[in-house]
Amino acid sequence: MANFDVFLPKFVAIFLLPPLNVVALGVCGASLRKRRPRLGGVLLITAGLLFYVLSAPIIVRTVRSHFETIPPLDPTVAPPPAEAIVLLAGGLYHKAPEYGVDTVDGYVLERLRYAARLYRLTGKPILVTGGSWRKGMRPESHAMKEALEQDFRVPVQWVEDRSRTTFENAQLSAPILQQQGIHTIYLVTHALHMERARATFEKLGFHVIPAPTMYTTWEKTTVFDFLPQSSTLAMSSAVLYEWLGRRWYAWK
After folding, report:
1. Domain with CATH 3.40.50.620 in the chain
2. Among 3.40.190.10, 3.40.50.300, 3.40.50.620, 1.10.1660.10, what is the CATH number of 84-213?
3. pLDDT for the residue 153
4. How far is CA 104 from CA 6, 84, 91, 99, in A?
5. d(CA 169, CA 52)
6. I need a labelling partner for 14 at 20 to 30 A (CA). Which of 20, 77, 164, 201 fits?
7. 3-state DSSP of the chain
8. In which residue ranges of the chain is pLDDT below 50?
9. Would you state the pLDDT for residue 4?
10. What is the pLDDT at residue 1?
11. Which of 107, 146, 145, 108 is nearest to 125 (CA)?
12. Predicted TM-score (pTM) above 0.85
């Protein structure tokens, strides 16, 4: 049942996220063009509009910024006191040829950089949390610990290496922290993900001081922001995934 709860939402999300959602809508429209031309035409037009909405930077960045509701820590003053830093996993660079091992991907590296900064500001011990998705795969937390200690020269105090979701991050990290008498934590993750992550840890009784990173920012709007861009599809996928995650957690 645990595996079902983990893999079902991710399996469903594949069909609801770009590019498969656009492709599926377009294929349905094309297949109906002869039998039901009006419906087929509507589906094809909808697929085209959906593609534009999901790939136009001006639209996706605006929507994403509305998900980033929790403000960052003020960089000009000392952070509020806490007892530990909790850093969430988020992806693995598999069989990295230049490292000779699975290591953190660019997405997680953004979180690691901010956790290292927070450690140097506060000196608080770090817990990294994240397991593996397949048997024989390296747990993400092991790669995170290695990167922090070798690349950032920041020690990691605790490693939780069995979790596969945000909920499991909190559920399996809780005993480790509670055994140390830790109840107030800095929580490090992306700004887009912070609202769901904070709620999950708070539900387990922790006082969470959010330490989000990687907000949506831009200097000024240009004509290129209105043109479809392939890189924006990844951003829209992340936004839709987070929206689905919040709906799923609320339902569960």
Report:
1. 84-213
2. 3.40.50.620
3. 98
4. 21, 22, 7, 11
5. 35
6. 201
7. CHHHHHHHHHHHHHHHCCCHHHHHHHHHHHHCCCCCHHHHHHHHHHHHHHHHHHHCHHHHHHHHHHHCCCCCCCCCCCCCCCCEEEEECCCEEEEECCCCEEEECHHHHHHHHHHHHHHHHHCCCEEEECCCCCCCCCCHHHHHHHHHHHHCCCCCCEEECCCCCHHHHHHHHHHHHHHCCCCEEEEEEEHHHHHHHHHHHHHCCCEEEEEEECCCCCCCCCHHHHCCCHHHHHHHHHHHHHHHHHHHHHHC
8. 1-4
9. 42
10. 36
11. 145
12. yes
d(CA 31, CA 54): 23
Contacts of residue 40, defined as CB under 8 A and 6 or more positions apart, other chains included, come to 28, 29, 30, 31, 32, 33, 34
Report how far residue 210's alpha carbon sits from residue 192's, in angstroms, rounded to the nearest whole number.
12
Compute how many other C-beta atoms are within 10 angstroms of the C-beta atom of residue 173: 27
Q: How far apart are CA 154 and CA 226, in angstroms?
A: 41
Give me the amino acid identity at 176. Answer: I
pLDDT digits (tens, 9 = 90+) for 106-144: 999 999 999 999 999 999 999 999 999 777 789 999 999
Beta bridge partners of 127: 86, 158
Contact criterion met (CB below 8 Å) for 205 and 183: yes
Q: Are 136 and 118 in contact (CB under 8 A)?
A: no
Extract the tokens encoding 217.
């920012």
Q: Which residues pair with 185 in a beta bridge?
A: 84, 208
pLDDT given at position 15:
74
What is the number of alpha carbons within 13 Å of residue 113 lying toward its C-beta? 9
In angstroms, the CA 127 to CA 225 distance is: 39
